[in-house]
Amino acid sequence: MSQVGIVIVSHSPKIGEGIKALIREVIQDVPIKTASGTDSNKIGTSSTKIMEAIVNANKGKGVLIFYDIGSAKLNAELSLEMINLENIEISEAPIVEGAYVAAVESKLGKEIDEIKLVLKKAFNLES
């Protein structure tokens, strides 16, 4: 069964991998990719890493991207413009809790719009 993929964008490779490890304690088969740190694995973000993570997490049902701080969102937005794929969304939900909830909902087979609605309700998001 195809599932919505999750991409975690963090300035810290350790944080990105830690969030993924936390989710993997409960959910093993949802596509989760990290795009954390610069291309040389220093603190920062990389559009190249983000685009690769999106492509690798996309199994046909779309991808939700979670980010830690402002410039990570900017690089995610830039990546979306450059990659030009459909059904890829940046979530405003908290990175740890949001990615976890999204992974649970993806595991249940929900579509990306259904997952976004769950996140909106769970975290009182505007859109």
Q: Please, could you describe this protein's structure?
A:
The chain is of the alpha/beta class and 127 residues long. The protein has a single domain, classed as Phosphotransferase system, mannose-type IIA component (Rossmann fold, 3-Layer(aba) Sandwich). It is 49% helix and 15% strand. It has 5 helices and 4 strands; from the N terminus they run E-H-E-H-E-H-E-H-H. A 4-stranded parallel β-sheet has the order 2-1-3-4, sandwiched between helices. Helix 2 packs across helix 3 and helix 4 packs across helix 5. It is globular, with a radius of gyration of 13 Å. The protein starts with a strand and ends with a helix.
What keywords describe this structure?
127 residues, alpha/beta, Rossmann fold, four-stranded parallel sheet, 49% helix, globular
Topology, please?
Elements lengths: L4 E6 L2 H12 L7 E5 L10 H11 L5 E5 L2 H14 L4 E3 L4 H13 L4 H12 L4
Parallel strand pairs: 1-2, 1-3, 3-4
Helix pairs in contact: 2-3, 4-5
Number of domains: 1
- Share of helical residues: 40-55%
If strands are numbered along the chain, what order do they take across the biggest sheet? Answer: 2-1-3-4
Number of helices, counting only DSSP H or I runs of 4 residues or more: 5
Please report the distance between the alpha carbons of the first and last residues.
Answer: 28 Å
CATH-defined fold name? Rossmann fold
What gyration radius follows from the Cα positions, in whole Å? 13 Å
What does the average pLDDT come to?
96
Beta-strand share of residues: 5-15%
Low-confidence stretches: none
Report on the biggest sheet: 4 strands, parallel
The H-and-E topology, N to C, reads as: EHEHEHEHH
CATH architecture: 3-Layer(aba) Sandwich
Q: What's the CATH superfamily, by name?
A: Phosphotransferase system, mannose-type IIA component
The dominant shape is globular
Q: What is the name of the CATH class?
A: Alpha Beta
Q: Strand pairing plus helix content: what structural class?
A: alpha/beta
| Annotation, overall tally of beta strands | 4
